[in-house]
Design goal:
Elements lengths: L7 H23 L7 H23 L7 E4 L2 E4 L12 H6 L7 H17 L7 H4 L1 H18 L21 H6 L8 H12 L3 H4 L33 H13 L9 H10 L7 H10 L10 E4 L2 E4 L1 H13 L9
Antiparallel strand pairs: 1-2, 3-4
Helix pairs in contact: 1-2, 2-4, 2-6, 4-6, 4-8
InterPro entries: DUF3644
Protein name: DUF3644 domain-containing protein
């Protein structure tokens, strides 16, 4: 029987179809109240969706997206034990020079890829609310790119709507979501570390994290469509007013200090004998790094101290000024 020769177009269409189905399934699972592993399922399926999307794009541009070794003019393709070609994973697709995805969208995707490694084999239900803005951005970015890379008919926005909720967002709940204190340490460290590495402009971009101000609406005009969510244009007076108020009330990112910076601050205050050894003895004596004390945070493999710890150390040095070499 003759081997079927599949055309570029047919494979591209198949890849796009699989890509769309993976993203739609990711959203449906995340919105399903009976599913517990929402975040992990969403990340895995959205990863597949983006991978197939980029494979379809590279195929349409004649970019080789299979792994191979170049031997002179000949290519030796990497294969599995059963003889199947090994194709680029998402990270490799994003790093290629021909990648059409913008830098901020790539940051969003790389965040999700890294998070997937951290949450493996852990209960992740608490992450769903913390990171839904990142997931929402991933969906919107995907819909934007599938339409711009191919055509508007490929968009998936026509299939989706806002999911209904069984609970309202209360102020105390919103405050809790500003912190990552009740997440496993490796996950909170990863999130804080990744976010800290981004420029402010990139971190605040809607393509990285799609954040929405949630304001209960108490007045509606009779006879008008009663939408559960109404969007204000970002440049409208109402939206600008809300954003200004939000900037005023939002919790500022806590300044972080390396141990060496803490010591320099104390020595600048005149405590010249307060050095690394003395600092280490002091924080160990009061278990300052103990979870729940709020004096600092572990980011990747580095510990950072908060402003509150600077005040504690300064008070300690004042009480022991002579010991630390300060002449009154």
């Amino acid at each position: 029987m003759a081997k079927r020769n599949r055309k570029v177009g047919s494979i591209k269409i198949e890849l796009i179809t699989k890509s769309k189905e993976a993203m739609l399934t990711a959203v449906q699972i995340f919105n399903n109240p009976n599913i517990q592993f929402k975040s992990e399922s969403f990340i895995v399926l959205s990863n597949i969706a983006w991978t197939y999307l980029l494979h379809a794009y590279y195929r349409s541009k004649n970019v080789e997206y299979r792994y191979f070794e170049q031997h002179g003019a000949r290519r030796k393709f990497d294969k599995t034990k059963r003889g199947a070609y090994k194709f680029w994973e998402l990270e490799r697709c994003l790093s290629d020079d021909a990648c059409p995805i913008d830098r901020i969208t790539i940051s969003n995707l790389k965040f999700l890829i890294g998070l997937r490694h951290e949450i493996e084999h852990q209960m992740t239900s608490r992450i769903d609310n913390y990171l839904s803005a990142r997931f929402q951005a991933c969906c919107l970015n995907y819909n934007s790119y599938i339409k711009s890379l191919f055509n508007d008919k490929q968009g998936i926005d026509k299939y989706l709507s806002f999911s209904l909720q069984f609970s309202s967002i209360k102020e105390e709940h919103a405050k809790q979501l500003k912190q990552f204190s009740d997440l496993p340490e490796n996950i909170s460290a990863y999130i804080n570390g990744y976010d800290s590495s981004l420029p402010d402009e990139e971190y605040n971009d809607m393509r990285y994290s799609y954040r929405v101000l949630y304001v209960p609406k108490s007045v509606n005009h009779k006879g008008q469509a009663d939408k559960v969510i109404e969007f204000l244009p970002a440049n409208s007076p109402e939206a600008e007013k809300l954003n200004k108020e939000y900037v005023l009330i939002k919790e500022k990112e806590k300044p972080k200090y390396l141990p060496g910076e803490v010591i320099k601050l104390m020595q600048h205050d005149g405590y010249i004998l307060f050095k690394q050894y003395q600092h280490t003895l002091f924080w160990k004596s009061i278990e300052a790094k103990k979870k729940g004390k709020g004096y600092g945070v572990q980011v990747a493999k580095t510990w950072y101290w908060y402003e509150s710890w600077i005040n504690v150390v300064r008070e300690h040095c004042k009480k022991n000024a002579t010991q630390y070499g300060k002449n009154s």
